Amino acid sequence: MTSGRSTTTRQTQGLSGLLGQTIAGMSADVIGEETWTALKSHLLDCITLIIAGRTSPRVRRAVQATEMHDPAFALSLACGALGLDDFDEATRTHPGAALVPALIAAAAGRSAPVTGKDFAVSLLVGYETFKWLGAAMDARHMHQRGRHPSTMVGMPAVAVAVARLLGSAKEEIQGAVGVGAALACGLTEFDAKEDMRAVQTAWAASSGVKAAQLAKAGFRPSPYALEAAGGLLKGSTASVPPIEEFGEQPFAVELVSFKPYAHFSDLHPATSALLRAVQGRRVMAEEVATMHVHITPTAVARLHRALPPRTSKEAKRCAEYVLAACLLGDGSGEPVPSPTIDDTRIGDRSVLALAEQVQVVADLPEPAGSDDHHAVDRQVVARVEVVLRSGEVCSGTSTGYPGDGRDPALRWTLDDARNRFDALALPAISQAGITPQAVLSIATDLPRLADVRPTAQAIAALPYAG
Which pLDDT tens digit goes with each residue over 231-285? Predict the structure, then answer.
Protein backbone atom coordinates (compact mmCIF):
# COMPACT_ATOMS: atom_id res chain seq x y z
CA MET A 1 0.00 0.00 0.00
CA THR A 2 1.26 3.48 -0.84
CA SER A 3 1.81 5.69 2.20
CA GLY A 4 0.02 9.01 2.70
CA ARG A 5 3.31 10.82 2.22
CA SER A 6 3.92 9.02 -1.10
CA THR A 7 0.40 9.89 -2.25
CA THR A 8 0.96 13.56 -1.42
CA THR A 9 4.29 13.57 -3.25
CA ARG A 10 2.64 11.97 -6.26
CA GLN A 11 -0.04 14.65 -6.26
CA THR A 12 2.48 17.50 -6.17
CA GLN A 13 5.18 16.07 -8.45
CA GLY A 14 3.10 13.89 -10.71
CA LEU A 15 4.14 10.42 -11.80
CA SER A 16 6.65 11.79 -14.30
CA GLY A 17 8.32 13.81 -11.54
CA LEU A 18 8.61 10.76 -9.33
CA LEU A 19 10.06 8.78 -12.24
CA GLY A 20 12.56 11.55 -12.93
CA GLN A 21 13.66 11.62 -9.32
CA THR A 22 14.00 7.83 -9.13
CA ILE A 23 15.86 7.49 -12.42
CA ALA A 24 18.25 10.37 -11.72
CA GLY A 25 19.26 8.63 -8.49
CA MET A 26 20.08 5.26 -10.08
CA SER A 27 23.74 4.32 -10.54
CA ALA A 28 25.80 1.34 -11.64
CA ASP A 29 26.20 0.37 -7.99
CA VAL A 30 22.81 -1.37 -8.15
CA ILE A 31 23.93 -3.67 -10.96
CA GLY A 32 24.87 -7.14 -9.76
CA GLU A 33 26.52 -9.98 -11.66
CA GLU A 34 23.31 -11.45 -13.11
CA THR A 35 22.12 -8.03 -14.24
CA TRP A 36 25.46 -7.26 -15.89
CA THR A 37 25.19 -10.56 -17.76
CA ALA A 38 21.68 -9.71 -18.94
CA LEU A 39 22.66 -6.18 -20.04
CA LYS A 40 25.71 -7.41 -21.95
CA SER A 41 23.78 -10.24 -23.57
CA HIS A 42 20.86 -8.10 -24.74
CA LEU A 43 23.19 -5.36 -25.97
CA LEU A 44 25.35 -7.81 -27.94
CA ASP A 45 22.31 -9.55 -29.41
CA CYS A 46 20.74 -6.29 -30.57
CA ILE A 47 24.00 -5.17 -32.17
CA THR A 48 24.27 -8.59 -33.85
CA LEU A 49 20.80 -8.15 -35.33
CA ILE A 50 21.61 -4.61 -36.46
CA ILE A 51 24.69 -5.80 -38.36
CA ALA A 52 22.88 -8.81 -39.84
CA GLY A 53 19.71 -6.89 -40.73
CA ARG A 54 21.15 -3.63 -42.02
CA THR A 55 21.01 -4.67 -45.71
CA SER A 56 17.43 -5.95 -45.66
CA PRO A 57 15.19 -4.51 -48.38
CA ARG A 58 12.96 -2.85 -45.77
CA VAL A 59 15.88 -0.93 -44.26
CA ARG A 60 17.27 0.12 -47.63
CA ARG A 61 13.89 1.31 -48.88
CA ALA A 62 13.18 3.34 -45.75
CA VAL A 63 16.60 5.00 -45.62
CA GLN A 64 16.53 5.84 -49.32
CA ALA A 65 12.93 7.07 -49.28
CA THR A 66 13.24 9.40 -46.31
CA GLU A 67 16.65 10.79 -47.28
CA MET A 68 17.22 11.77 -43.68
CA HIS A 69 20.10 11.25 -41.30
CA ASP A 70 18.40 9.47 -38.43
CA PRO A 71 20.63 6.72 -37.03
CA ALA A 72 18.17 5.68 -34.32
CA PHE A 73 15.44 5.10 -36.91
CA ALA A 74 17.67 3.16 -39.31
CA LEU A 75 19.35 1.08 -36.60
CA SER A 76 15.98 0.12 -35.13
CA LEU A 77 14.68 -1.02 -38.52
CA ALA A 78 17.81 -3.12 -38.92
CA CYS A 79 17.49 -4.58 -35.42
CA GLY A 80 13.99 -5.89 -36.15
CA ALA A 81 14.57 -6.93 -39.76
CA LEU A 82 15.13 -10.63 -39.03
CA GLY A 83 12.24 -10.95 -36.58
CA LEU A 84 14.58 -12.04 -33.79
CA ASP A 85 14.60 -8.90 -31.59
CA ASP A 86 14.07 -9.54 -27.88
CA PHE A 87 10.55 -9.84 -26.47
CA ASP A 88 8.99 -9.18 -23.07
CA GLU A 89 6.29 -11.75 -22.39
CA ALA A 90 4.73 -9.66 -19.59
CA THR A 91 4.12 -6.51 -21.64
CA ARG A 92 4.11 -8.05 -25.16
CA THR A 93 6.72 -5.50 -26.23
CA HIS A 94 10.07 -5.59 -28.05
CA PRO A 95 12.18 -3.32 -25.83
CA GLY A 96 15.64 -3.91 -27.29
CA ALA A 97 14.74 -2.91 -30.85
CA ALA A 98 13.77 0.54 -29.59
CA LEU A 99 16.22 1.08 -26.73
CA VAL A 100 19.57 -0.14 -28.06
CA PRO A 101 19.43 1.71 -31.42
CA ALA A 102 18.37 4.92 -29.66
CA LEU A 103 21.14 4.71 -27.07
CA ILE A 104 23.79 3.90 -29.68
CA ALA A 105 22.66 6.87 -31.77
CA ALA A 106 22.58 9.17 -28.73
CA ALA A 107 26.02 8.03 -27.55
CA ALA A 108 27.45 8.45 -31.05
CA GLY A 109 26.29 12.06 -31.12
CA ARG A 110 27.60 13.07 -27.70
CA SER A 111 30.44 15.56 -27.44
CA ALA A 112 31.50 14.26 -24.02
CA PRO A 113 32.66 10.72 -23.21
CA VAL A 114 30.02 8.11 -22.38
CA THR A 115 31.35 5.47 -20.02
CA GLY A 116 30.25 1.87 -20.21
CA LYS A 117 28.63 2.20 -16.80
CA ASP A 118 26.61 5.24 -17.89
CA PHE A 119 25.48 3.36 -21.00
CA ALA A 120 24.55 0.33 -18.90
CA VAL A 121 22.49 2.33 -16.40
CA SER A 122 20.66 4.05 -19.26
CA LEU A 123 19.84 0.69 -20.83
CA LEU A 124 18.77 -0.67 -17.44
CA VAL A 125 16.48 2.33 -16.92
CA GLY A 126 14.93 1.84 -20.35
CA TYR A 127 14.02 -1.79 -19.70
CA GLU A 128 12.68 -0.86 -16.26
CA THR A 129 10.46 1.84 -17.78
CA PHE A 130 9.08 -0.63 -20.29
CA LYS A 131 8.17 -2.92 -17.39
CA TRP A 132 6.74 -0.28 -15.03
CA LEU A 133 4.88 1.77 -17.61
CA GLY A 134 3.79 -1.36 -19.45
CA ALA A 135 2.12 -2.59 -16.27
CA ALA A 136 0.45 0.81 -15.72
CA MET A 137 -0.87 0.83 -19.29
CA ASP A 138 -1.96 -2.84 -19.28
CA ALA A 139 0.32 -3.29 -22.28
CA ARG A 140 -0.17 -7.05 -22.23
CA HIS A 141 -3.72 -6.56 -23.54
CA MET A 142 -3.09 -3.43 -25.57
CA HIS A 143 -3.23 -5.30 -28.90
CA GLN A 144 -6.87 -6.04 -28.17
CA ARG A 145 -7.51 -2.29 -28.04
CA GLY A 146 -5.81 -1.74 -31.40
CA ARG A 147 -2.70 -0.12 -29.97
CA HIS A 148 0.90 -1.19 -30.51
CA PRO A 149 2.56 -1.59 -27.09
CA SER A 150 6.14 -1.49 -28.33
CA THR A 151 5.58 2.09 -29.51
CA MET A 152 3.00 3.34 -27.00
CA VAL A 153 5.26 2.31 -24.14
CA GLY A 154 8.44 2.63 -26.18
CA MET A 155 8.51 6.36 -26.81
CA PRO A 156 8.54 7.46 -23.16
CA ALA A 157 10.77 4.50 -22.22
CA VAL A 158 13.34 5.46 -24.86
CA ALA A 159 13.03 9.11 -23.85
CA VAL A 160 14.00 8.47 -20.22
CA ALA A 161 16.80 6.07 -21.19
CA VAL A 162 18.34 8.64 -23.53
CA ALA A 163 17.79 11.41 -20.99
CA ARG A 164 19.76 9.38 -18.46
CA LEU A 165 22.53 8.88 -21.04
CA LEU A 166 22.66 12.63 -21.68
CA GLY A 167 23.25 13.26 -17.98
CA SER A 168 19.91 15.01 -17.58
CA ALA A 169 18.80 16.34 -14.20
CA LYS A 170 15.65 14.95 -12.62
CA GLU A 171 13.55 17.87 -13.95
CA GLU A 172 14.81 17.14 -17.45
CA ILE A 173 14.05 13.43 -17.10
CA GLN A 174 10.56 14.39 -15.94
CA GLY A 175 10.27 16.46 -19.09
CA ALA A 176 11.47 13.56 -21.22
CA VAL A 177 8.71 11.37 -19.77
CA GLY A 178 6.10 13.99 -20.65
CA VAL A 179 7.37 14.70 -24.16
CA GLY A 180 7.67 10.97 -24.85
CA ALA A 181 4.13 10.42 -23.57
CA ALA A 182 2.84 13.23 -25.79
CA LEU A 183 4.47 11.66 -28.86
CA ALA A 184 3.43 8.07 -28.09
CA CYS A 185 1.38 6.44 -30.82
CA GLY A 186 1.03 3.14 -32.64
CA LEU A 187 -1.68 1.02 -34.24
CA THR A 188 -1.93 -2.73 -34.68
CA GLU A 189 -3.61 -2.53 -38.09
CA PHE A 190 -0.41 -3.65 -39.79
CA ASP A 191 0.17 -4.38 -43.45
CA ALA A 192 0.68 -7.89 -44.82
CA LYS A 193 4.49 -7.66 -44.57
CA GLU A 194 4.33 -5.89 -41.19
CA ASP A 195 6.49 -3.05 -42.50
CA MET A 196 4.43 -0.58 -40.48
CA ARG A 197 5.02 -2.44 -37.24
CA ALA A 198 8.76 -2.14 -37.81
CA VAL A 199 8.45 1.51 -38.85
CA GLN A 200 6.46 2.30 -35.71
CA THR A 201 9.10 0.73 -33.44
CA ALA A 202 11.82 2.62 -35.31
CA TRP A 203 9.80 5.81 -34.91
CA ALA A 204 9.68 5.19 -31.16
CA ALA A 205 13.47 4.94 -31.12
CA SER A 206 13.86 8.12 -33.15
CA SER A 207 11.17 10.12 -31.33
CA GLY A 208 12.44 8.99 -27.95
CA VAL A 209 15.84 10.50 -28.73
CA LYS A 210 14.18 13.74 -29.80
CA ALA A 211 11.99 13.80 -26.68
CA ALA A 212 15.07 13.59 -24.45
CA GLN A 213 16.78 16.33 -26.46
CA LEU A 214 13.73 18.59 -26.27
CA ALA A 215 13.55 18.10 -22.50
CA LYS A 216 17.25 18.89 -22.24
CA ALA A 217 16.56 22.09 -24.21
CA GLY A 218 13.99 23.23 -21.62
CA PHE A 219 10.67 21.87 -22.85
CA ARG A 220 8.54 21.14 -19.78
CA PRO A 221 5.25 19.32 -20.41
CA SER A 222 2.67 18.85 -17.68
CA PRO A 223 3.96 16.86 -14.70
CA TYR A 224 0.69 14.93 -14.95
CA ALA A 225 1.23 13.86 -18.56
CA LEU A 226 0.82 10.24 -17.53
CA GLU A 227 -2.06 10.13 -15.03
CA ALA A 228 -4.23 13.17 -15.91
CA ALA A 229 -7.58 12.84 -17.68
CA GLY A 230 -5.84 13.76 -20.91
CA GLY A 231 -2.70 11.75 -20.12
CA LEU A 232 -1.13 8.62 -21.56
CA LEU A 233 -2.74 6.29 -19.02
CA LYS A 234 -6.27 7.40 -19.91
CA GLY A 235 -8.32 4.36 -20.84
CA SER A 236 -6.11 1.82 -19.08
CA THR A 237 -7.94 -0.39 -16.60
CA ALA A 238 -4.70 -1.42 -14.87
CA SER A 239 -3.56 -0.12 -11.51
CA VAL A 240 -0.50 2.10 -11.54
CA PRO A 241 2.33 0.26 -9.77
CA PRO A 242 3.81 2.13 -6.79
CA ILE A 243 6.87 4.11 -7.81
CA GLU A 244 8.78 2.12 -5.20
CA GLU A 245 8.48 -0.91 -7.48
CA PHE A 246 10.52 0.82 -10.17
CA GLY A 247 13.94 -0.80 -10.12
CA GLU A 248 12.95 -3.68 -7.86
CA GLN A 249 15.05 -6.80 -8.34
CA PRO A 250 15.14 -8.91 -10.36
CA PHE A 251 15.55 -6.13 -12.90
CA ALA A 252 13.33 -6.19 -15.97
CA VAL A 253 16.23 -6.78 -18.38
CA GLU A 254 16.90 -10.14 -16.73
CA LEU A 255 13.34 -11.29 -17.47
CA VAL A 256 13.07 -10.18 -21.10
CA SER A 257 13.26 -13.10 -23.51
CA PHE A 258 15.54 -13.64 -26.48
CA LYS A 259 13.79 -14.86 -29.62
CA PRO A 260 15.46 -18.05 -30.90
CA TYR A 261 12.99 -18.36 -33.79
CA ALA A 262 11.80 -15.71 -36.27
CA HIS A 263 8.14 -16.74 -36.21
CA PHE A 264 5.42 -15.76 -33.72
CA SER A 265 6.61 -15.95 -30.11
CA ASP A 266 3.50 -17.81 -28.93
CA LEU A 267 4.64 -20.69 -31.13
CA HIS A 268 8.11 -20.84 -29.58
CA PRO A 269 7.20 -23.43 -26.89
CA ALA A 270 5.58 -25.71 -29.48
CA THR A 271 8.60 -25.32 -31.76
CA SER A 272 10.88 -26.29 -28.87
CA ALA A 273 8.68 -29.31 -28.09
CA LEU A 274 8.76 -30.42 -31.76
CA LEU A 275 12.55 -30.19 -31.88
CA ARG A 276 12.76 -32.29 -28.74
CA ALA A 277 10.35 -34.84 -30.17
CA VAL A 278 12.50 -35.54 -33.24
CA GLN A 279 15.88 -34.82 -31.68
CA GLY A 280 18.64 -37.06 -32.98
CA ARG A 281 16.73 -38.55 -35.88
CA ARG A 282 15.71 -37.78 -39.46
CA VAL A 283 12.01 -37.61 -40.23
CA MET A 284 10.93 -37.34 -43.85
CA ALA A 285 7.63 -35.67 -44.68
CA GLU A 286 6.22 -38.83 -46.28
CA GLU A 287 6.82 -40.73 -43.02
CA VAL A 288 4.45 -38.49 -41.05
CA ALA A 289 0.84 -39.68 -40.60
CA THR A 290 -0.19 -36.81 -38.32
CA MET A 291 1.15 -34.33 -35.80
CA HIS A 292 -0.73 -33.48 -32.58
CA VAL A 293 0.08 -30.09 -31.04
CA HIS A 294 -1.17 -29.35 -27.52
CA ILE A 295 -0.88 -25.75 -26.31
CA THR A 296 -2.76 -23.36 -24.01
CA PRO A 297 -6.03 -21.59 -24.92
CA THR A 298 -4.33 -18.19 -24.68
CA ALA A 299 -1.69 -19.22 -27.21
CA VAL A 300 -4.31 -20.65 -29.58
CA ALA A 301 -6.41 -17.48 -29.37
CA ARG A 302 -3.53 -15.42 -30.76
CA LEU A 303 -2.85 -17.69 -33.75
CA HIS A 304 -3.93 -17.58 -37.36
CA ARG A 305 -5.77 -20.82 -38.07
CA ALA A 306 -6.74 -20.85 -41.77
CA LEU A 307 -4.81 -22.78 -44.42
CA PRO A 308 -3.34 -21.83 -46.75
CA PRO A 309 -2.00 -18.58 -45.28
CA ARG A 310 -2.43 -15.62 -47.62
CA THR A 311 0.60 -13.66 -46.41
CA SER A 312 3.87 -14.29 -44.60
CA LYS A 313 2.35 -12.50 -41.60
CA GLU A 314 -0.43 -15.11 -41.41
CA ALA A 315 2.03 -17.95 -42.04
CA LYS A 316 4.28 -16.93 -39.13
CA ARG A 317 1.23 -17.01 -36.82
CA CYS A 318 -0.12 -20.32 -38.09
CA ALA A 319 0.89 -23.30 -35.93
CA GLU A 320 0.13 -25.81 -38.67
CA TYR A 321 2.27 -24.00 -41.23
CA VAL A 322 5.18 -23.09 -38.91
CA LEU A 323 5.59 -26.55 -37.42
CA ALA A 324 5.30 -28.20 -40.83
CA ALA A 325 7.99 -25.86 -42.19
CA CYS A 326 10.21 -26.60 -39.18
CA LEU A 327 9.88 -30.37 -39.54
CA LEU A 328 10.25 -30.32 -43.32
CA GLY A 329 13.41 -28.21 -43.16
CA ASP A 330 15.29 -28.44 -46.44
CA GLY A 331 13.74 -31.80 -47.26
CA SER A 332 16.64 -33.86 -45.94
CA GLY A 333 14.82 -34.95 -42.79
CA GLU A 334 16.74 -32.53 -40.60
CA PRO A 335 14.36 -30.09 -38.86
CA VAL A 336 15.06 -26.36 -39.08
CA PRO A 337 14.32 -24.40 -35.87
CA SER A 338 13.71 -21.08 -37.65
CA PRO A 339 12.68 -21.75 -41.25
CA THR A 340 12.49 -18.98 -43.80
CA ILE A 341 8.87 -17.89 -44.09
CA ASP A 342 8.26 -15.19 -46.66
CA ASP A 343 5.88 -14.45 -49.49
CA THR A 344 7.92 -16.59 -51.87
CA ARG A 345 7.37 -19.70 -49.75
CA ILE A 346 3.84 -19.47 -48.37
CA GLY A 347 2.52 -21.42 -51.34
CA ASP A 348 5.07 -24.25 -50.95
CA ARG A 349 3.01 -27.36 -51.68
CA SER A 350 5.17 -29.69 -49.61
CA VAL A 351 4.81 -27.47 -46.54
CA LEU A 352 1.08 -27.05 -47.07
CA ALA A 353 0.58 -30.80 -47.53
CA LEU A 354 2.36 -31.53 -44.25
CA ALA A 355 0.51 -28.66 -42.54
CA GLU A 356 -2.78 -30.40 -43.32
CA GLN A 357 -1.62 -33.28 -41.11
CA VAL A 358 -1.11 -31.00 -38.08
CA GLN A 359 -3.87 -30.92 -35.47
CA VAL A 360 -3.79 -28.12 -32.87
CA VAL A 361 -5.62 -28.61 -29.57
CA ALA A 362 -6.01 -26.01 -26.80
CA ASP A 363 -6.07 -28.45 -23.90
CA LEU A 364 -3.14 -27.46 -21.69
CA PRO A 365 -3.81 -25.38 -18.56
CA GLU A 366 -2.60 -21.81 -18.40
CA PRO A 367 0.58 -21.54 -16.32
CA ALA A 368 0.30 -19.89 -12.93
CA GLY A 369 1.89 -16.46 -12.87
CA SER A 370 1.74 -16.09 -16.64
CA ASP A 371 0.51 -12.50 -16.38
CA ASP A 372 3.63 -11.19 -14.66
CA HIS A 373 7.40 -11.18 -15.09
CA HIS A 374 8.12 -13.99 -12.68
CA ALA A 375 9.03 -17.44 -13.87
CA VAL A 376 6.24 -19.94 -14.24
CA ASP A 377 6.57 -23.13 -12.20
CA ARG A 378 8.07 -25.13 -15.07
CA GLN A 379 4.62 -26.27 -16.08
CA VAL A 380 4.33 -27.87 -19.51
CA VAL A 381 2.90 -25.30 -21.95
CA ALA A 382 3.41 -27.27 -25.16
CA ARG A 383 3.37 -30.93 -26.12
CA VAL A 384 3.94 -32.26 -29.64
CA GLU A 385 3.42 -35.82 -30.85
CA VAL A 386 4.64 -36.76 -34.32
CA VAL A 387 2.85 -39.95 -35.34
CA LEU A 388 4.67 -41.86 -38.06
CA ARG A 389 3.03 -44.14 -40.59
CA SER A 390 4.98 -46.99 -39.03
CA GLY A 391 3.02 -46.48 -35.82
CA GLU A 392 5.93 -44.97 -33.93
CA VAL A 393 5.17 -41.83 -31.94
CA CYS A 394 7.85 -39.19 -31.30
CA SER A 395 6.88 -36.98 -28.35
CA GLY A 396 8.31 -33.83 -26.87
CA THR A 397 7.23 -31.31 -24.25
CA SER A 398 8.31 -27.81 -23.33
CA THR A 399 7.91 -25.51 -20.34
CA GLY A 400 9.05 -22.55 -22.42
CA TYR A 401 11.74 -22.10 -25.04
CA PRO A 402 15.49 -21.43 -25.25
CA GLY A 403 15.97 -17.79 -24.23
CA ASP A 404 12.70 -17.57 -22.24
CA GLY A 405 13.46 -14.84 -19.72
CA ARG A 406 10.82 -15.95 -17.24
CA ASP A 407 12.65 -19.16 -16.42
CA PRO A 408 16.24 -18.98 -15.08
CA ALA A 409 16.90 -22.43 -16.51
CA LEU A 410 16.07 -21.24 -20.04
CA ARG A 411 17.54 -17.74 -20.07
CA TRP A 412 20.34 -17.01 -22.48
CA THR A 413 23.83 -16.29 -21.24
CA LEU A 414 26.47 -14.09 -22.83
CA ASP A 415 27.83 -17.25 -24.49
CA ASP A 416 24.46 -17.78 -26.20
CA ALA A 417 24.48 -14.19 -27.46
CA ARG A 418 28.05 -14.70 -28.65
CA ASN A 419 26.99 -17.82 -30.56
CA ARG A 420 24.35 -15.84 -32.42
CA PHE A 421 26.91 -13.09 -33.10
CA ASP A 422 29.23 -15.68 -34.65
CA ALA A 423 26.42 -17.15 -36.75
CA LEU A 424 24.76 -13.94 -37.97
CA ALA A 425 27.12 -10.99 -37.59
CA LEU A 426 30.52 -12.42 -38.44
CA PRO A 427 29.57 -13.31 -42.04
CA ALA A 428 28.37 -9.73 -42.60
CA ILE A 429 30.85 -7.79 -40.55
CA SER A 430 33.67 -7.66 -43.10
CA GLN A 431 31.44 -5.54 -45.34
CA ALA A 432 30.29 -3.39 -42.45
CA GLY A 433 33.57 -1.56 -41.93
CA ILE A 434 33.90 -2.52 -38.27
CA THR A 435 36.01 -5.17 -36.55
CA PRO A 436 34.47 -8.05 -34.59
CA GLN A 437 36.48 -7.15 -31.51
CA ALA A 438 35.17 -3.60 -31.49
CA VAL A 439 31.61 -4.86 -31.47
CA LEU A 440 32.28 -7.52 -28.86
CA SER A 441 34.10 -5.13 -26.55
CA ILE A 442 31.17 -2.76 -26.15
CA ALA A 443 29.26 -5.67 -24.64
CA THR A 444 31.82 -7.91 -22.97
CA ASP A 445 33.89 -5.03 -21.53
CA LEU A 446 30.94 -2.73 -20.82
CA PRO A 447 31.60 -2.09 -17.09
CA ARG A 448 35.23 -1.12 -17.79
CA LEU A 449 34.87 1.02 -20.93
CA ALA A 450 35.96 4.61 -20.49
CA ASP A 451 34.10 5.70 -23.63
CA VAL A 452 31.64 3.77 -25.79
CA ARG A 453 31.46 6.51 -28.44
CA PRO A 454 34.02 5.13 -30.92
CA THR A 455 32.14 1.84 -31.29
CA ALA A 456 28.75 3.57 -31.16
CA GLN A 457 29.85 5.93 -33.93
CA ALA A 458 31.07 3.03 -36.07
CA ILE A 459 27.76 1.19 -35.64
CA ALA A 460 25.70 4.33 -36.28
CA ALA A 461 27.64 4.93 -39.50
CA LEU A 462 27.05 1.43 -40.93
CA PRO A 463 26.11 1.50 -44.61
CA TYR A 464 22.70 0.14 -45.57
CA ALA A 465 23.49 -0.94 -49.11
CA GLY A 466 24.48 -4.55 -49.69
Answer: 999 888 788 999 999 999 999 999 999 999 999 999 999 999 999 999 988 999 9
Closest by CA position to 182, among listed 230, 123, 148: 230
Q: Helix or strand or coil: residue 160?
A: helix
Q: Which CATH superfamily includes the segment(s) 4-258+412-460?
A: 2-methylcitrate dehydratase PrpD (1.10.4100.10)
Q: How far apart are alpha carbons 52 and 253 in whole angstroms?
A: 23
111 burial class (0-12, 13-18, 19+ CB within 10 angstroms)? exposed
CA angle (16, 19, 24) in 5-degree steps: 125
Return the CATH architecture of domain 265-398: 2-Layer Sandwich (3.30)
Nearest-angstrom CA–CA distance, 255 and 39: 11
pLDDT per residue over 337-370, tens digit each?
999 998 888 999 999 999 999 999 999 999 875 5
| Backbone φ, ψ for residue 148 (5° rounding) | -95, 105
State residue 435's pLDDT score: 87
Which phi and psi angles does 183 have, rounded to 5°?
Answer: -90, -10
Q: Are β-strands 358-361 and 382-388 bridged in parallel, bridged antiparallel, or unpaired? A: unpaired
**Would you list the domain boundaries of the chain?**
4-258+412-460, 265-398
The CA dihedral of 358, 353, 305, 405, to the nearest 10 degrees, is 60
Could you give the count of Cα atoms lying within 13 Å of 104 in the half-sphere of its Cβ? Answer: 30
